[in-house]
Amino acid sequence: MTEKSPLIVALDFAVRAELDALLEKLDPSLCRVKVGKELFTLYGPDIVRDLHKRGFDVFLDLKFHDIPNTTAAAVAAAADMGVWMVNVHASGGMKMMTAAKAALQAYGKDAPLLIGVTVLTSMQSEELASIGVGGDALAQVGRLASLSAESGLDGVVCSAREVSVLRTLIPKDFLLVTPGIRPAGSELGDQQRVATPSDAIAMGSNYLVVGRPITRSADPLASLKEINASLGY
Ligand SMILES: O=c1ccn([C@@H]2O[C@H](COP(=O)(O)O)[C@@H](O)[C@H]2O)c(=O)[nH]1
User: Fold this and answer.
1) For residue 121, how far is its CA from the centre of ligand 1 (angstroms)?
2) Is DNA damage one of the keywords UniProt gives this record (predicted)?
């Protein structure tokens, strides 16, 4: 179990005023936050600076996927911003991931956690064949998680459904970051491989990424606190 709530709130907003309204209610002791492609494309590094000023640990979820030189430079740029966690697509391969890890060496203990994205939680096994991947989601997640660990990464993004099997394949301290979290009864949206917050923790997730069940709730703070309470925080 992490020292504070394992919750990472996905700040997927297009309208700055809506984000600010939520941030006024959030407290860094309650959760960490995630800046994804939408928010970063709209507001850039300023949004990360603002979140840092407010005291939040920031997961910069830009899922870099490029040649090793470009990915390493992008990850170093993220480290310059002082983010807590950054990620790359594990399907970029070992050369890309080891280059990204090497780029972070210069930051010492201030380096962000480097996480590999395995199979998006919006995908089901059936869809993998159409992108040339043989086998089911679990097999592909296992393959990419092992490759990420061999490349020196700190963990992977996967669905909570894969966590218990992954724990048998990867080092003990390897971090498993799980989106696709849906409290019982909430809408799935485009998520396919889902789990409830308490099941995800029981199966061994280190961090839970939760977006719409909090951000689109009528009372985001109450929804966040309800999830924390269900996990004992
Ligand atoms: O496999 C992945 C990787 C990243 N995500 C991101 O997590 C959040 C989930 O938001 P919800 O609203 O709770 O569905 C979102 O920012 C995704 O970009 C993911 O869902 N799955």
Assistant:
1) 7
2) no
**Catalytic residue IDs:** 63
CB 213 within 8 Å of CB 182: yes
Contact assessment for residue 81 and residue 48, using Cβ atoms and an 8 Å cutoff: yes
- SS3 readout for 164-225: HHHCCCCCCCCEEEECCECCCCCCCCCCCCCECHHHHHHHCCCEEEECHHHHCCCCHHHHHH
> Which residue, by CA, sits nearest to atom 7 of ligand 1?
179
Substitution site in 37, 88, 121 for ligand 1 pocket (most atoms within 8 Å of beta carbon) = 121
The number of the ligand 1 atom at minimal distance from the alpha carbon of 159 is 1
Residue type, 59: F
- Cα of first residue to Cα of last residue in the chain, in angstroms, is 11
Q: How much distance in Å is there from the Cα of 137 to the middle of ligand 1?
A: 16
Q: Which of the 8 DSSP states describes residue 204?
A: T
Integer Cα distance of 195 and 211 in angstroms: 14
What pLDDT, in 10s, does the model give residues 126-145?
999 999 999 999 999 999 99
- Where does ligand 1 bind, in terms of residues with CB under 6 Å? 10, 12, 36, 117, 120-121, 157, 179-180, 189, 191, 209-212
Query: Of ligand 1's atoms, which has the minimum distance to the CA of residue 122?
Result: 21
- pTM over 0.90, yes/no: yes
- Give the DSSP letter string of 40-86: HHHHTHHHHHHHHHTT--EEEEEEE-S-HHHHHHHHHHHHHTT-SEE
